[in-house]
Amino acid sequence: MEDPQRYPVTLQVNGSGHRIEVEAWVTLLDLLRERLQLTGTKKGCDHGQCGACTVLVDGRRINSCLTLAVMQDGRSITTIEGLAQGDTLHPLQQAFIRHDAFQCGYCTPGQICSAAGLLAEGQARTVADVRELMSGNICRCGAYPQITEAVRQVARIAPDPQEEAPPCGR
Length: 170
Description:
By secondary structure, this protein is of the alpha+beta class. It folds into 2 domains: about 1-80, Beta-grasp domain (Ubiquitin-like (UB roll)), CATH 3.10.20.30; about 85-160, [2Fe-2S]-binding domain (DNA polymerase, domain 1, Orthogonal Bundle). Helix content is about 30%, strand content about 15%. The protein is built from 5 helices and 5 strands; from the N terminus they run ββαβββαααα. A 5-stranded mixed sheet has the order 2-1-5-3-4, covered by helices on one side. About 40% of the residues are buried. The mean pLDDT is about 95.
């Protein structure tokens, strides 16, 4: 039996150039995790429904499980590993820690990459916008209020006055 045909793919991943030969069916997610050992990007549903595999391609957020690696030839990919600058965390990473916006942490890389893309898009002007534009990223633990607050803070969106908690017992 003959080996399957492989295709050359050139990518900039987190600022580093890579030239890799892949079979036509290899997803960007599998290339990142299995060939480049960038395991921060998670494989959740593998059907584009959970957002755990969200990365940035040329600054735009995508589900890496839904795109083939060969389709991204010549593109710039940013994963969770590429957001920090050395030992300095990205402001979203700092905000997620500050607001305890993760519980089990499995969805966190996709949530943060999606939020970075959301900020770059510049369309979120309200807390409701953040919720809607982040709705493709599922958190099984239900940390949505903390995630929303972390993104809201970094985006410098005013808090929603209707969501202010009433004073306890007074």
